[in-house]
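--- STAGE predict ---
source: upstream dedup step, 1 unique chain passed
mode: sequence only
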Amino acid sequence: MRRWAHLGLLALAACSGGVDGVSVQGHNECEGVVEGALPDKAPRQTSDGREAVLVRYRSGARVSAAAVRRVGGQVTAQYRLIPAVAARVTPEERARLAADPNVERIEPDLEVHALGLPTTTGSVDEYTDALRLVQAQQVWDANEDGVLDTGAPTGAGIRVCIIDSGIDRRHPELAIPYTAGYDFVDGDDDPSDESNGVRGLGHGTHVAGIVAAQLGSGGTTWPTMSRGGMVGVAPGVELLIARVLNVHESASISTVLSGLEWCRQQGAHIASLSLGAPMDMGNTAREAFQAALDGGMLIVAAAGNDSRPGDEAPLSYPSAYPSVMAVGAVDAQEQVASFSNRGEGLSLVAPGVDVLSSISVQGATEPEFDAEGERYASRSLFFAPAGEYTGELVDCGMGDIGECKSGTCDGFVAYVRLAGFYSVTGIAQNVMRQGARAIVFGSEDSDSQSWQLGLDGPGRKWVPSLAVGRESRAAVLKHLGKQVRVNLRAVDYARFPGTSMATPHVTGVAALVWSVRPSLTATEVRALLERSAKDLGEPGHDRQYGHGLVQAKAALDTLQQLP
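--- STAGE serialize ---
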């Protein structure tokens, strides 16, 4: 994930001095740009600017397709079972219809999907490195032909409750496994990662995809991905979604406990929490998690992302409670991630570095940076919007006001050198005020390392922004003063780092094991996963790796040896 989601509170002047109407930058700023927001633009529409709706008339009122047509709407169906009309309308036409006293309500005409078993056919290209690291495909596709093996364990019959930021139910990877949900942020039955029209980053959607994404159900992918997207560890589970984190990825302890209780009421076998706090959540919380375990529910939680090289942080809560399985993160080489919290209570580790999974539909971007016919490796920023801009590459130094000396309010691409004490968001605000319509951040990190930058969000407007690693910076700087192109294409997948991403891998493996022998208790499932883990680090249990890397095939082999 972009950052560890803590509980509780997280916490212009016009250009002047121009000659003959040409705007220049000194210490002045451009008109119409405020912090974190560009001048307002019309929202992106579909190709004809219309949306599909159902117009529901009041009982007893005359249903008239002609009335819809009179305001300009395109009628697609008129019903007799209910007083309603299906139509495609513009926002203006919808407003005029809503003012009709005979109209009871106007609802979006949403897509529906066939319900059934997990998609059985896909492609081995959907098997991510992380999936292979935990041996999931060895359980349900032993011959690796991209088809679920008949009768193989997929987590069928196991209910997994994800206590997180909700999910984007429009994502095709999650349409089949979604079973029920509740939004404890907005108080309704729609656990979407959205409030008051503001969409979150898609943290919960990413977690849910790691557990249960379907074969052959891809959304919008980038060119090097399988068109089928990716597949989860346990694609046969039933997903319960308890939305407790708001769009800023924070929640109160009481809200988390409400989610935990709801999961239990819904018959969840496993509760997965990719969230936490650095301090003890209190006796009430401790007792609640213990009671959930005593009631038969396995609880898996992220260890936290607060460690730094040479400075190990203790387990976050609730993962530090004895009743909870604490999960740390490793990279593709099975080395503990530098950010992963450690401690004697660590249970297992799982992949948590650059993990590919689903995200809110069109919620991530795939970047392209071109200069004079050359394309350079780059990374988009979290909350940077999709869009394309071509303009002069201007040196903006370290991003202070007045440093984009050759830029104008007519627009340019800002190049900024990153330093550790400068805020990415603050830099973006500064260069946007000076007229930047796209931003290229020069990072001190290597292209080969795992790193990601992010702008503040959600609900704020930025220009298309990307970053280049230190191997590319020198080459990029040769194009200062030349025309360059920044293009961010919206996609439905992203790579996130964090123990948040490790946690659902353990959750999925637990579901696979439990689906084979439903008579197991939560405590027995935990013991089985710990006993069969791949020992890493020091022999036996240790503070960095716990019992080791969770292994699906090894866990099932161990299970077969038990009475």
